[in-house]
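To: structure subgroup
Subject: Chain for Friday's discussion

All,

I'm putting the inputs and outputs inline so they're searchable in the archive.
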Amino acid sequence: MEHVALILMLVATSWQAIHVVLGGKVVNPNKRILTIQESIWVGSGIASLFLFINAVTWWPQFALGNGMNVGLKRITEIFVIAIFWTAFFNLFIQYANQRSKELAPVSYVAPYQGMTPFLISFAFIVFKESLSAVAWTGIGIIAFTTYVHGRDDMPLRIPRSYQEVKQWGLPLTLAWRLPKNYRELAAPDRAKAENMRQGVRWAILAAVLGTFGLMGDGLLARHGDAVLGLSAKWGLVTIFYAFVYPYWRRMRGIEANPTILFEPLRRRIAGNWKTVLTYGVSLALLEVLVAIAFRVAPVAHIGSMKRFHIVLVAILAWVLLGEKKKRRIATAIGFGVGTFLLGLDPHAQAHTLNTAEEYLLAIREFFSR
C-alpha cells in the first residue's frame, strides 16, 4: 500500500480518537455539556464551516498540484450521489455513536467498531478492488484484536471449559443478555446493566451502518472536490439535526429530553468552548486526511486502518475520562501487526469507476455470477 496512505491514516486515527473521546465527554450524563442532538449538529456545524473555509483558501492550490478535482467545475453525478449517500447514513451513524457513548463508557463501546473491517472488506464488490491474502490476514487480525479488546478483562488463553468457550462470545452476547445476577442487583446497578446493554446495541448498529457510510466517503473522495464535498456532507447533517429533527419531534408531540440542561446552549458552549471547538475541528481534520487516503488506497484498507483509533480511544479515555482498563499491550501489538500487513499488500491500489452506471453494472455483474 502507498506509504503516504499509511502515514495519513496514522495521523487521521489520532484525530479520530480525540473526536470519539470528546464526543463521549460532551454527552456524559454526569457532566453533560450537550444533548445528543446538540452534540451532532454543533460538531457537524463546526466541521462543515472549517472545511468550507479550507475549501476556498489553501485547498484548491494543494489539490490541483496533486492532480485532484477541485471546485464546482467538475461536479459529476456520482459525486452528488456520494454526498447525499454518506450524509444520509451519517444521520443514523452519528446518533447511534453518541447514544452509545451516553449509555456506556467510551472505551467499552469503541471496540465494537472492530466489526467494520470485515464488513467494509466486501466493498471491493462495488469498487472492483481485489484484496490479496496478505490484506485479508491483516484485516482479520485487526478485527479479531478489537474483538478481544472488547472482552474487557476476560482471560486470553485457549478455552479449557464450556464456560470459557461461552466467554469468547461475550462481546456480542452483551447486546441481548443481562448479567445472571440481574434480579439480585440494586436498582442503580440494574439501570447500569441495562444501559451497558443498550450502549452495545447502539455501537453495533453504528458499526454496521458505518460500512455503508465508508463506501459513500470513498466515492465522494474519488469523484470530486473532497473538501468541498465533505463540507456539504456535514452541512446536511447539521441542517437535519438543528432544524428538521427538532421540528419532527414537535410535530409528533415528543417532549424534550428530560436530561437536557436548563442553561442556554450559548452559555454551555462558552463555558466549554475549547472542548466543543476541538470536538468539531477534529472531525474535519480526520475526514480530510481519510479522504486523501481514499484516493491512493482501497476502501477496505482505509476502513480497516481507521480502527486503530480504538487503541488510542482506550488510552485517552483512561487519561481524560478516568476509564481505567488493563488490556493495552495485546491490542496495540495486534493493530500494529495488522496495519503492517496491510502496508505489505502488493495489490493495494485504489480503483475508480467513472459513472454511476458503471458502479451499478459492477453490482449486477457480481450478483449474476
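Points worth raising on Friday:
The radius of gyration is 21 Å.
The chain has a mean pLDDT of 77.

D.
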